[in-house]
Specification:
Elements (H helix, E strand, L loop, with lengths): L2 H29 L2 H8 L4 H15 L2 H14 L4 H14 L2 H6 L7 H14 L3 H27 L6 H9 L3 H15 L2 H13 L5 H14 L2 H8 L3 H27 L2 H9 L4 H20 L3 H11 L4 H9 L13 H31 L3 H29 L5 H36 L6 H27 L5 H27 L5 H25 L17
Length: 551
């Protein structure tokens, strides 16, 4: 094999991979956020989850893309491992479609695909058509890459050294290991399988060896997910591990079956006699389907094994509780009065998490640690998830036969949820402020710190008092919270005036000065949300200011 042929082979692989990327990106852009929405909502049933994983992977032509999205959802708490396993299994079937497509000989149409896709992408202004054009271009690049690979590897059939190497792969164990390593290098089982197809079509790789390479490729395909799991939390890591376990068991089951019942391979070959490329594609698909059918009944066992390897910590159990609805679970099955009471309790629970997070955010700001910062962000995510879940549940609440008074109460509780969610947003802002200062080695003066602490104390008192009023609907304490809010407003004016004076006298670090001002604003807005929450279920007197909201 000459150096030119080596370069041609590498160019073909590169063009194929780039075509896959372009096609995947175009499909995802064309679908917009719909894929994530579908993934988030269509995983309650394992069978549906499998179909969702299958469909999504067929669309984006990448099981890794689907699996990485799954890791993200599991990482954030939007999806449980018992839901993720179905999507992962479906993705393993969906990824086999690429090999089915490439088994067709479309090389004659490749120039037309490239030209048509380029015209749509470059000269049409509509975004949807541009995205479709990039998909078509991706297809064209994909098939052009295959054509280049086939031409480049043809001389390999005459290479004694390469033939000897392939001879070593007649050992099933070595073939599986090579399939794993090769796919891990390419980070795509679809790409690896297509290359194995090309080798087989050129007559330099037997079908029986290709079978074990394909089995190994399924394990190697987990590499991008394992890499994505490195930066995820423990639940995200479990999702990546779950994918690996599924494919390891898949490999063991399939190897056992084809050795006990060798007729399986004969039957698959007989589906497409004389077409080894199609035979490999069919093997890839049938093996994936068989693995899902065999392992799906044991999905919960796989999840439990994953949780044994990466045990669940007590704080994770609390996080699961925080992110799950506790009271709004059967709103349509109870009387309206009970449903309203349950909704109120749920919002109060969310409020406690948010209020604690404001306190937690302030503690992190004045005494930073990475663990505190992570805790704030984790609880902020919990509040966001609860906000989302409560909003969905309140749609059910509005479908009940409610009186005008109760419907108004639902509307007021909806507004209260928004104020609570904003409180936790400000807690996360505080963490970002201190991290900015730490990264630039900026420090705040002792005087400025003391001023912020005084304002923060009144803000926290206002937040907790507001939550107490909202929970008990005891409006005898409204004067107290009005007084606290006035104190916070007075702090704001005083602190800004002092801040300006320090700037004029060059006592203030520029970055610290900006963050000081931002902190004052955040604390004042927390107080605004607190007063909104206190009055959420009660009409505010006309003489008082209307509720405040962030702009």
């Amino acid at each position: 094999m000459s150096i030119v042929e080596v370069f041609s082979l590498l160019g073909g692989v590169g063009l194929f991979l780039f075509g896959m990327t372009i096609m995947s990106s175009g499909l995802k852009n064309a679908c917009g956020d719909n894929l994530q929405v579908i993934l988030e909502h269509a995983t309650k049933n394992k069978i549906i989850a499998v179909l969702v994983g299958l469909g999504m992977t067929m669309l984006v032509q990448s099981s890794s893309a689907t699996d990485v999205m799954v890791i993200g959802f599991v990482n954030s708490g939007l999806m449980k491992l018992t839901q993720a396993i179905g999507v992962i299994m479906g993705a393993n079937i969906g990824t086999t479609i690429t090999a089915q497509i490439t088994a067709f000989n479309l090389s004659a149409f490749t120039p037309l695909l490239l030209f048509g896709g380029a015209v749509m992408y470059l000269f049409i202004k509509q975004n949807l058509i541009k995205h479709v054009g990039s998909v078509i271009m991706g297809f064209g690049m994909l098939f052009q890459g295959i054509t280049m690979m086939k031409a480049a590897i043809q001389p390999l059939s005459q290479s004694e050294g390469f033939t000897t190497f392939l001879g070593t792969l007649s050992n099933p164990a070595l073939a599986v290991l090579f399939g794993i390593a090769f796919t891990a290098l390419l980070q795509s089982s679809s790409s690896a399988t297509v290359i194995f197809q090309a080798f087989a079509v050129q007559g330099i790789l037997s079908y029986n060896v290709a079978v074990y390479l394909v089995i190994g490729a399924a394990i190697g395909s987990v590499t991008p997910n394992l890499l994505a799991g490195l930066t995820a939390n423990r639940n995200g890591k479990r999702s990546a591990l779950l994918n690996l376990l599924f494919n390891l068991f898949r490999a063991g089951i399939l190897i056992a079956l084809i050795n006990i019942f060798p007729i399986i391979l004969t039957l698959i070959q007989n589906l497409s006699p004389g077409d080894v490329g199609r035979q490999i594609a069919n093997t890839h698909t049938i093996f994936a389907i068989a693995a899902v059918l065999i392992e799906l009944p044991f999905a919960n066992k796989l999840v439990k094994l994953t949780e044994i390897i990466i045990p669940i910590r007590p704080e994770e159990n609390q996080q699961i509780k925080d992110r799950s609805l506790a009271y709004m679970t059967q709103l349509t099955k109870v009387p309206a009065s009970v449903a309203l009471s349950q909704t109120h309790r749920e919002i109060c629970r969310m409020g406690r998490i948010a209020a604690d997070n404001v306190k937690r955010g302030l503690d992190c700001f004045f005494d930073y640690s990475s663990a505190k910062a992570e805790s704030v962000r984790s609880h902020e995510e919990s509040v966001n998830i609860l906000n989302h879940s409560i909003a969905e549940a309140m749609v059910q609440l509005r479908s009940l036969d409610l009186s005008p008074e109760n419907m108004r109460r639902v509307s007021m509780m909806t507004i209260a949820v928004t104020d609570i969610e904003r409180l936790s947003d400000h807690a996360e802002n505080m963490v970002e402020y201190v991290e900015q200062m730490n990264s630039k080695k900026a420090e705040m003066t002792d005087v400025a710190t003391r001023e912020l602490k005084d304002m923060a104390d009144d803000t926290v008192k206002a937040v907790y008092l507001a939550l107490e009023i909202f929970e008990t609907e005891d409006y005898s304490k409204l004067d107290d919270i009005e007084l606290l809010e006035q104190h916070v407003d007075d702090h704001e004016k005083s602190l800004i005036n002092n801040h300006v004076e320090r700037i004029m006298n060059s006592f203030c670090n520029p970055l610290s000065g900006v963050i000081f001002s931002d902190m004052v604003t955040d604390l004042e807005r927390c107080s605004d949300h607190a007063i909104n929450l206190a009055y959420a279920l009660k009409e505010r007197p006309a003489e008082l200011d209307q509720p405040h909201y962030d702009i």
